Every structure is written in structure tokens, then in C-alpha cells.
Amino acid sequence: MSDDSGLLREAQDAFEEAEEFEKHNRDTYIEDNKFARLGEQWPEKIKEQRQADGRPCLTINKMPAFLRQVVNDARQNKPSMKVGAVDSSADPDTAKVINGLIRNIEHISNADVAYDTGVECAVGGGFGYWQVDIDYAFDDTFDLDILIERITNPLTVYGDPNSTAAESSDWNTAFRIERLKKDKFKELYPEADRVDWKFDFQDVSQSWFDGDYVMVADWWRREQVDKTILLLSDGTVLDENDLEDNWDWIVAGNITPIKSRVVKSHKVTRNKLTGAEVLSVDEWPGKYIPIIPVYGEEFDIGGKVYRRSLIHNGKDAQQMFNFWRTAGAELVALAPRVPFIGPVGSFVTDANKWQSANSVSYSHIEYDVVKEGQNIMPPPQRQPLDSGVAAGALQESLNAADDMKSIIGLYDASLGARSNETSGRAIMARQREGDVSTFHFLDNLTRSIRHTGTVVLDLIPHVYNEERIIRVLGEDGTESQQAINQAVPKIDTDGNPMMEEVLNDAGQPVMQPLTRVFDLTVGKYDLVVNAGPSFTSRREEAATQMTEMIRAYPDIAPVIGDLIAKNMDWPGADEIAKRLQKMLPQQLQEQAIPPEIQKQIEEGMSRIKQLEEENASLKADKSLDAMKLKIEEQELELKKIVDLMGARTSQFEAITDRMQATGSLQPQMQYSATPAQPHFQNGFAR
Question: Given 477, 499, 532, which residue is the final one in a domain?
Fold first, then answer.
């Protein structure tokens, strides 16, 4: 354990600054969530007074419907990351492996839950967070994996008060606090001193201490540092700190440094602290603080940053709606019943029933007939209820409901309720208005996921820097195993090794397998984020749109029937697609031979014919024993050409099969990538 009082003092000062900066937003977060989630919508004094008077306080909470509309829209249209190669050291095929690796990272760490929790907190309270972390892949291995973890309580995070970036890329300090039971704390940190919770440590925020719990804080700190990079004679750029680790490779290749320069970089450390002690200091391999915020509505007034939820400005309208609905209920259901009016003497019989007629329902009540002279007076009658005041309360409640919709920007069409729009186009236009008015929440989520991808890309060369087998996921969720940072044979679409012709030590041509290396430690890659429906949703939409096209143009059904079946999501769809593909018109099934392969086939056939003629001529002259050796050599060359032709034919058949499987009309040639550059391993001490 470390007892660095200077580091602890610096952490305490940074925490107090962040806490003061965030206080008003955190108070608003709690108020908005209590209002919308817990339904605490009546002012406390008014609620106490009404309860003392025996009057109702109805809470008809409309806020969750508005929140769910935006949050579930974000869940249906989850942004997805896509990595692309940037510089000459990067490889497009390696970028595809990184894409599959990132999808697997999101899968194994349930990143969708982290994203959903973050955006739900942002929509309901103004801000939310998730965190990128590193941990061992399994209990019985030393391989590390990157994880994306959700933060259920955003109030445990304190960001950099001096940040100006929308997604925390410029954070230089951040705190994430965790409450541990004293027993748990002692188990995790047995050598740590016991903390006296009544100990008044000067300038330490009291929020660090809470009864039987210990507030342990992760203080993330980023500092700017200088580092020297070297340009080597083979064009490789190397960090000076990695020179010793790669010295053997440099000496073996007779490589020398050409020039160097000093560049600015960042060093990130994670310090685990209590209110009175530094528990540990660990160096983080990346250059970003791995806590990702997602904000709601954000604006700056006079240097003070405000973060607001979706429903913040609609709380007054919701309170008025509750008040007028309560008033209407009082007037109609709880108001005193109007009395029965009748002549004197009408209520002698069943007098007890007449006394309780306004509170008890009776099947019948008898009354006394009263006469005045020869006239019989009418029986007792209840006076009509004056509903004018209740109708006014109902109208005001409707006005308050409309106010909520206009303030938040979501109308009946967006909420799935019947509205005054009648045509489908009008309904879609009103839904579009609601999507536009709340689009900033989804756009902020896209920015945060993009920064998450940047953080993951920054960590991949440090975490996946050794030879290992990783799992990658396709866009449609298909799983496959991929070897990284090592030479692997190239495989064609049929699963057979791809071959190439090389010269052996004796100068003779031989066929050997093509290999390549997916090196995740070299090259620069960038990332874009696409927001839209998931792969499954897009596939279903494609099938729906193609079905509508067939209804409009029935003649094209035989042409695209296999594509529709391929996009259907039910058992047997792929088999039906294959059968429909065989029923395509002949002109769609015939595949043109690619010009490159056609040229090679023609040259090979010409050379075979030439060799056959020469062999026939040489064999006819029995007296030329010296020519036998040449004949044998030419026969070997002929066999080599035949083998090469067979390999080219297999390659063409593989391309044809792949095109038939995908429905493509134009084949695409595959070229082997250039030999990968040597990679340099970077150590990471967790």
C-alpha cells in the first residue's frame, strides 16, 4: 500500500472541484428521476395539507410513456461501429478482423445493456455513463480481453469540469466511486488501515464516508508526456522505448535509425483511493480515460454547463394535469350528494333509509303519499347535479396534456395513440416531427459509441499483441475463429488452401500455400458509426420491400425470388433460396470467365500444344540420346503447367460457386495481401 499524502491531497482537491461543478446537474438528475420514475409529482407541503384534510392527490404519470418512446427508439436503432484502414501499414482485411473482434467484445460484455442503461439515464436525468475495462478472458488463462461495462448509477461518476469535448475525449481527470461494506473492504485490502468514520480529515468531502460503508474511489488521471519516435531504414516507425524489445530483429535485418523526433502523447493512470489512503496506482495502456458519458440536452450559460432530461421542462404541465384530474375527481366522485326534495311527511316511512340514501344503495325505499286537498303531491326526487365545474376541470386537464406533448415534442402519433391524422402519410409526418424533436438524444448516443470505438481501437494493439486465437463475429452474428499476429494459410471459399508458385533452393518452381498475417499491433485505423436498424431489422425490411416490389411488378418474381427467400427469417429459407436460384433464367446462371483467368488458360493451352509438338519431334529421332534429358525436362514443365491449369480452374470454379451463392453477376478477383510488417509487442501490467 502507498501512503502518498501529496497524491491524496491532489485527488481530494480535484474531487471537490468536480463535485462542486456537477452539483446542480446531479440535483436536477435526482429531482427529474423522482418526478418521472417514482411519481413524486406533488409539492410536499400541498400533499401534506391535502392528506390532512382527507382530500385526494391523484398522480396520473404520463412521463414514462415519453421516456420509453425515445429510449426504445434508441434500442431499435442501435449505432454500430465500422473500422477502416488509414495508412500504408494498415490492411483492409485486418480491418475486417478488427470489426469482428469489436463485435465480439460487445457481445461477451453485453455492451448493448451498457448502451441502453446510459441512454436511459441521459433521457431520464440528463446524463449517463459506461466504462471500458480490461480483464482476463477466462479463469485459467493469461489472455486479456477488452470489456464494455455498464454503470447503473451515473451519480457515482464525476467527470472533468474543464472538459469541452462532447464525448469526454479530452478528459484529464475523472472519479468513479464505489461503496464497499467494511468487511468487504477488509477482505480486498487486508493491509489497509482501518478508517475511523468519525475522523475529521481536513478538506475531505463528507460524501466519501457513509456509515458502515467505505467509499473507494478510482481516480483516473491523464497527463501529457513527451516521447521519442524513430524512423528506421526499412520505413518502420518505432517508439524509442520499444527499441530494446526489438533489438534482435533490428540487428538481424541490419536496420539502422534514420531520424527521430519528439511527439506529444498522454499517460493515463488509475489510482485507487479512500478518504485517507492511496491503495494502488496502476498504469493504463491507453491514452484516453475509459469512462464514456452520454448526455441529454446540454448547453452552456455564463460558463455553467446545464444537462437536462427529456421531461425536465414538462414537469409543470404534468403537475397541472394531476391537479385538474384530482379536482375533477373531487367534484364528481367525492363531492356531497345532492339531497332528495319532497313534500313534508313524505319521509316518515323508511326514515332510516332516507337518512342514509346518499351513502348506501338500497333496492327500494318507500315514501308516504301526501295530499293537499284533492291533489296528490309528487314523490321525493333527487335534484340534478351541476356538472359545469367538472367539465371545466376536464377541459383544463386536456389542455395540460396537450402542453406536455408540445413541450416534449412527442404527439399522439409518435406515442401510438389515435390522433386527428387520418392518412398514413399524415401520421408518418407527425411521427417524423417527434423523431426530429428528440433526435439530439440519439445523436449524442452515436457520438458516445463512436468514442467508445476509439478507446477500444486504442487498446487493441496493447491487449491483443501476442499470437492467439480470437473469436470474431460477422455482422449477422455468425461466429468464427481467427488466428492473429501469426502466419496462417489463405483459404478459398471451399475451405481449401490457396497455392502460389515459388522457386525452391534449386531454382525449380514449386507450389506452396499462400499465407498472410493479421497483425493487430501495426497500422492506423479509424472508425465510423452508422446509426440505424439492426442487421436483422434491415434484412426483414429488405424482404418486405422486395415483396412489395413483386406486387407492383409481378414479372420480376422469377428473377428475385431467391433473394427474397434468403432474407426471410424462418427454417428452410436458405434451402428454398438455393432451389429458387437453380430456377433462374439461363442468362443469370451463366458466369463469364474473368479476363485474367481466360488469358492464363489460353497461354497455357498454347504452351502445351507447342511442347507436345516438340516432344513428338524429339521422340521421332531415336539417334539423339542427348535429347532424352531435354524431353524429360519438357515433360516436367508440361506437368507443371497442367497442375497450374488445374489450380486456376479450381479457383475459377470457387469464384463461380461463390457468385451463384450470393446472386452476384460479376465475379470479384481475390488478391493476396502484401507480406505483413513485423510487429512490436507492448507490455501491459494490470
Answer: 532
